[in-house]
Amino acid sequence: MLRTLYTIGYEKRTIDEFVELLEDAGIGVLVDVRETAWSHKPGFSKTAFAAALGTAGIEYVHAPFAGNPKGLRDAAPDHAACLDAYRRYLDQNTGIVDKLDDVIRPYLSDGVNVCIACFERHAGDCHRSILGEAWCRVGRRSVKHLATAGCSRLIRV
């Protein structure tokens, strides 16, 4: 059976729009892959985020180990270099993808749709796409990026 992991970013979205996109995709669990689950954007810091998702019947899980470490972000001269650094970081720390799989596998085995989330609206601008693609390479898996207006892009490795 092919297992699919969804991804989404909350940039330029309200919490209501974000939750609606998740509901439309049938997401049952959202895994927050930010190192620190805090945001200037109302509704997207850990407590408020979990509450809004819970009201919609979506379970919230924070996986800070999968975040792009602050040290990498601070050392990068630009965004592209930051993403390259995260890619190398994942290559050197393969246990991160294994740990993420340990978090999401039980849900997927039970038929629950799981989505990983971070800030950047477009997956290609975010470490979640790198994380999702690394997860994809371990078995029969695919990643579906939920994008603008609920459109999506499917990746199979």
Features of the shown structure:
alpha/beta, disordered C terminus, 157 residues, six-stranded mixed β-sheet
Question: How many structural units, i.e. domains?
Answer: 1
CATH topology grouping: Cobalt-precorrin-4 Transmethylase, domain 1
Radius of gyration (CA) equals 14 Å
The pLDDT mean sits at 91
Output the helix-strand order. Answer: EHEHEHHHEHEE
> Roughly what percent helix?
40-55%
Q: Name the beta content range.
A: 15-25%
Would you state the CATH class?
Answer: Alpha Beta
Tally the helices: 6
Q: Please state the structural category.
A: alpha/beta
Described by strand count, sense and barrel closure, the largest sheet is:
6 strands, mixed
Order of strands side by side in the largest beta sheet? 3-2-4-1-5-6
Number of strands: 6
CATH architecture: 3-Layer(aba) Sandwich
